[in-house]
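INFO  loader      accepted 1 record
INFO  loader      residues=90
INFO  predictor   begin
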Amino acid sequence: MKILCVCGMGFGSSLMLKMTVEKVIQKKGLNAEAEATDIGTASGTQADLILTNNEFASQLEGGSVPVKAVMNMASEDEVEKAIDEYLDSK
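INFO  predictor   done
INFO  writer      dumping tokens
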């Protein structure tokens, strides 16, 4: 599974979110990888799940990849909930 972490420029909050996602992946023992990217690149990048903030989530929704908004990029609980919701929908 590939999880795309998206922010405006691809190296600020997306990197923080990527680190949080990696902690959750390791804790849950998932076979997954996280990648940080900017919003312009995100729509053309192949992934299974996109995690981002509310603003970018509304811009990325409607494509073939599910999008989940995360309010606190450093919250392992919030990220885990978003990943669990995605996994439960599969």
